[in-house]
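Input for the complex:
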Amino acid sequence: KAGVTQTPRYLIKTRGQQVTLSCSPISGHRSVSWYQQTPGQGLQFLFEYFSETQRNKGNFPGRFSGRQFSNSRSEMNVSTLELGDSALYLCASSSLLGTGLNNEQFFGPGTRLTVL
Amino acid sequence: TQLLEQSPQFLSIQEGENLTVYCNSSSVFSSLQWYRQEPGEGPVLLVTVVTGGEVKKLKRLTFQFGDARKDSSLHITAAQPGDTGLYLCAGVLDSGYALNFGKGTSLLVTP
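Predicted:
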């Protein structure tokens, strides 16, 4: 079974630009969650999509948005990039909605975004 | 403010030594997980604990959930170079939904 894939793996952008990151979950998984990982803040929850609907959202500004397609693939968009958006963006897929005991999240390798 | 505080932040030991990593909070969690992340990879789940006082063993790794469900520890016996990585604890608040992660403990085990 193929794991979670994320594209691209590395990305360099300049301030003010926008960026779209892609995540393909494990086959059969319907939930995709996005996280931002930085040395200063660690891993922080961005949002979760399930069956094409955003179900939960973390404490990030509206510049961060996402969507999920009917095949469960998900994209995350960041508009008007700031230097502080430089981070590793991780997506995780699971078969069920939420963070229940029997709902393990499987993480992808992440997209390393650098904003200059 | 970080909900989960991990200590130590960095740990460098020699093969064969024992170590303990701590994950503390003032909040109560319905469950707590431990992950290991290697460079260039996403975190991989090691264990989930849900009951206060629970102890789980995974080969040389022992995980404990505090009685009050506010803290947890990870003990590694006879560490090996393959244990090198970033260890993350993450918990779901009793009143919450999302996984809250600690900043992690970076472990280096040298031969």
